[in-house]
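Page 47, continued from p. 46.
Same chain as before, 157 aa.
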Amino acid sequence: MRKDYITWDEYFMGIAQLAAERSKDPNTQVGACIVNDEHKIVSVGYNGMPRGVKDADMPWAREGNFLDTKYPFVCHAELNAVLNSVADLSGCTLYVTLFPCNECAKAVIQAGIKEVVYGDDKYADTDGTKASKLMLKKCGVKLTKYKASGKTVKINL
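Result:
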């Protein structure tokens, strides 16, 4: 039997990382993968403009007048994954490359997701992330920091 196969966590976080590669955001690419208790992927998402909004027609700036930035328009990876699903997400696990913001945490909670496995937590000191963690914990959502194994998987596209 082969012994160097990847774990479920590596597989699902890898799917989230691959989904992030679809993002048109020049600064931050985030991917998400939602999995049920049978290890079946029920949805995937990445940060981008809402369906029907042309990416090339929209601003991607991080600074400037609010309407000249990406912030009022971009749909986060977690929210896209929740909205893209046609399955019941109750009891599912969300794998996401960046810890969810407070707005995405609300969607995660409302969808019934019971665990969040996250990669980067670079905004941990912001009020939005603190609020997110507070809500998720109060609602019994398990938070698990993904520990990268260092394995490399080569994909020729």
